[in-house]
Amino acid sequence: MIRWTMNRMKLSAALILCLCLMTNGWLFSHGHAMSAPVSGAHETQLVVPDIVVRDSFDREQQLSHLLKDQVAVVNFVFTSCTTVCPILSATMQELEKQLQHRLGSGVILLSISVDPGNDTPQKLRVHAEKLGSGPHWHWLTGRPAEIAQLLKAFGVPTGRPENHPPLVLIGNVGTNRWLRWVGIAAPQTLVDAVNTLAAETK
Fold first, then answer.
1. Is the pTM of this model over 0.70?
2. For the residues 162-168, what does the mean pLDDT come to?
């Protein structure tokens, strides 16, 4: 009796294992496998607002068009910030260096001002030049109402610029998979996230 019970338990375990393997194989073959985890990130979704902003060259940019089919790295800064913003910008500088082979080919960097009343396109341009920003690192500002709408869409608290949290988002706009870090993430972690999300477009 004991032997029969043990054999039955082994058979049940084998059937469960087989079912799990079959299920995982089905999910993989149908494109519903669990997405690869990325260190320290919180996964989210968002709707990119269809608004017009201005870049550091004082050109109008339709945000949805600028981000179309891109993997976007987005941070939020302001030019008179002397606390976390320099660290966030230094991180972006390192990303620009490490991702130079991808930038302009489906990957874009965005720094969005949380102080649009002060950060004119001209001020952003001077700030970007000091950092040596290349052509695929976009600095954006705009009318306060549009920037407030943008910040809300990206889950950034509005209010006094100096109270904004250090925040980075990386998203595959095509699949609407976004990863969010609150705090200072290591540059290599963000590079890995870009590579992970870029692979999902294929």
1. yes
2. 93
